[in-house]
Amino acid sequence: MGRSGELTALREGLARARRGEPQAYVVGGEAGVGKSRLLEEFTAHARAAGVTTAVGGCVELGADGLPFAPVAAVLRSLHRQLGPALPQAAAGQEDELARLLPELGEAGHAPPGEVDRALLFEFTTRLLERLAADRPLLVAVEDLHWSDRSTRELLGYLFRSVHRSRLLVVVTYRTDDIHRRHPLRPFLAELDRLRSVQRIELARLSRSEVSAQMAGIQGAPPEPAQLRSVFSRSEGNPFFVEELTAGGSSGDISDSLRDLLLVRMEALPEDTQEILRIVAEGGSSVEHALLAEVARCPEGELLTALRTAVGGNLLVPTDDGDGYRFRHALMREAVIDDLLPGERARLNRRYAEALEESGHVVPVHQLAARKASYWHLAGEPTRALPAVLDAAVQARRRYAFAEQLRLLERALELWDGVPKEIRRELRPVDHIENFPVTDTEQPLRFRDLLAEAMHAAVQSGQPDRGWAISKQALRLLDEQEDPLRAAWFWVNRSRTREQLGRGDGLEELERARSLIAGLPPSIGHAHVLASVASWQNVNRPGPESFGHAERAVEMARVTGAVAIELHARFTLASLKADSGDVDGGLADMRAVRDQMLRRELPPSISGIGRAMVNFAGALFRFGWLTEACTAAEEGLELCDRFGLSETKPWLQSVRAGVLDLLGDWDAAEEAIQYCWQAVSEPRARAAARARIGLMWLRRGDADAAERALEETRVLLDVPAVPAQQFRLPEIWLAIELAAARGRITEVREHFVRATSEEFPPFMAAQLWQILPVVAGIEADARGVPEAAEGRAEALRRIREVAGRMPTVVEPWAAGELHWRAEQLRAEGRDSPEAWQRAIDALVALRDTPVPALAWARRRYAEAVVASGGSRRSAEEALRLARATAVRLRAKPLVEEIDQLAKRARLDLGAGGSGRNGRDAESGLAVSMGLTARERDVLALVAAGRSNRQIAEALYIAPKTASVHVSNILAKLEVSSRGEAAALAHRLRLVPVATD
């Protein structure tokens, strides 16, 4: 009832999928609102239309270490339905796919340190593509709010990678379960960026829809009083409507949700109720064979009870036909709530014992995790600990690091409750990156378990957990007896301290360095030296950091630590670029990054993430904007390959900075918003919020910018002062906001705060953006009485800071010219020639910073008018500046330009537009919603270029070019490139060539 619009949307998506256009839908709604019913109706329609359908559900147990559960269920369902067609489609990929579908053979065993998710994700995607090549295929994943992180990352990869097939993917999730820190939130934010994914939100039913639903249940329209009562109490939730209506005359049931949900169960025979309790404790679904083992009753009695429960609409068979699940998850929760603690322990013990005796009754990849869960809930730590540790290894091998950490933390909780004789039989230590393991055959020790947990925390991007684990480990370790292990924990503790914004981490690194002093060469030496060099590169670059990095490379080569060698070589390359050899440093950074990516076995997850972010960031700060955007976009795709979800916000941050300078503010804001939603680190969140606030301010919303500044300062209010790179965005916003409010004294105070310390070289790019802003604020305040006091000192300080800044690359040199022009204006010596030099320098750059050029042109026009120069040149400059400001929606700049034109009686009509090639802005193109980059792509489409040629011309990936072309066709409402080219020429959406 009331879902015709949603069903229509899904059916239209299915029709498009049949034509070879893959589709993806995300269906959200509160518990009981009808997501499962909608999916059932749609899959029934699809099956009737000859579509192959497979449904997998995320299980609550997944949060405790059951990665890829719904994907595995989908593949099993397809295997049963398609028979030999699936193994044929998986030919050559069986070893990796067997991790998800054991029926394909024995899964490949990764050697220590192998963390290449590419094969697993890529082969799964290609398998579904092949199966959907000659048949329409519907894949549905229910209850995404219970999904494990690995499943989410695989789905994200699938959504991005499938381009031509008859595949339709539908996923559902509970909106009321998604609290602020729920792990699904950043995933949903990421999906919102994909044009290929459509969202459907199910609302509650209206009064008339509730009436129709009740009529369908009862076979007759409800009485007004009954409708009023049911609608009021259910608030339009279809599940509650159904439960209240089915109660018939028992309308006086308790208002308690639990009692409301349990009332129908309590009307069933006791034998059926007992089976329902057993099913509820078994998980989101329970296999029939396992249920029979646990129920311990004759098969006939079990089937009778199940038939009663299914007939009463409390249980439904699972999609694979092998088991049962509750029709509504809320019902299962209510049943569990109603169990006594002793009952729960007894039932979980029976489940665990059944799996110990008959593990074959559940999928092999679920066995360890489910045994671990059952033994834990049964209160049997002796049995739970080995099972939990085995499940943790499986989670790591399947690249599910967040699930691995949760399992290992459970093992830490269980450890003391397990007798020593049992602990002596535990498995050996699992793979831990750079950790000094002396004997790989000895049973796991508690210190090594802490190291496994620390490593999982680092790999899964959870520094708060890593901080707590390292504290416990260092309290237990004897640093004199075990210096290498202690040094390993100190290095990782340094990293988590920085990530948490609790300091710079130097103290921990110095402690680690003191522990390895005088010891024989080892991987531990190389690890510490490489970490110190990396820290110095960011915080205190200089000759000493070169020395540490070079010694780390030598030590790594001696000890065969390839990952550490590449890490240290990347640090050397970064130092080389920052020290003045920009081209050589960037070339070396690219070479090391590519070497990491070319290796069949990636050496270090964290190393690859660092390389992708820092390489893109280096290209950005040295002014290679197009290449930086391409590197960031390529990095975002590679994040799925290596499971680097925590790296994505950093790459988006780089991408946002590039898009800001290139003049695509809408895309830049979208990227910054993603950073704000996805990143957990307080320093990074603060920087993202400040950058959003600055964009809002430049678009004229000072109140929103002020709120963003307040939120930023709350995030930066930590015991240790964050590094300059994280404080500078907050100071920048504070400077421009104070100027907008007319508070020049605050501007000067903030600038002093920003420049009170020496800056590392990599921050020069930001300073050359801020210096013209501050000088311009002083220039605008000339003649204001309140600004007179302290003015000379402020100008002196600005000039002194600018004199310390390097200008070794063209963008920084252009920034200096821009600052000089503003400084002259502030000193009363405004000069059109100075502004023309700044404009020429900005235009001559490899990639022109669009906003800065617009501001410079506005200042040039003002200087020309003031000096009595050519009005025509002033008008031309203002036209170009205004067109850019309008496109950026930079309201304050538009108003400044209009006021100048009005005061000087300058003509800003359309006569001057279109004279200057790329600088001309098409108002019609803007009105059609084309971004600056899309207009560049359209010009090349109109010239007959292919996607690959467009990619080469604009230094973007061919896939990115394809996305731009698709967006252009949609915005112009044409169906082909030829139509788009014709329309562009006819409407003059692209520059017209002249002789």
Going across the biggest sheet, name each strand in turn. Answer: 2-3-4-1-5
| Average pLDDT reading | 86
Number of helices: 50
Low-confidence runs: 111-115, 249-255, 910-924
Q: How many runs of DSSP E, i.e. beta strands? A: 8
Biggest sheet details: 5 strands, parallel
Helix content: 55-70%
First-to-last CA distance: 66 Å
Task: Give a short overview.
It contains 50 helices and eight strands.
Structure keywords:
single chain, 995 residues, mainly alpha, five-stranded parallel sheet, three-stranded antiparallel sheet, 50 helices, 65% helix, 4% strand, globular
Descriptive notes:
By secondary structure, this protein is mainly alpha-helical. It has 50 helices and 8 strands. The strands form 2 sheets. Strands 2-3-4-1-5 form a 5-stranded parallel beta sheet. A 3-stranded antiparallel beta sheet has the order 6-8-7. Strand 7 (315-317) and strand 8 form a beta hairpin. Helix 25 (506-516) runs antiparallel to helix 26 (523-539), helix 28 runs antiparallel to helix 29 and helix 48 packs across helix 49 (958-972).
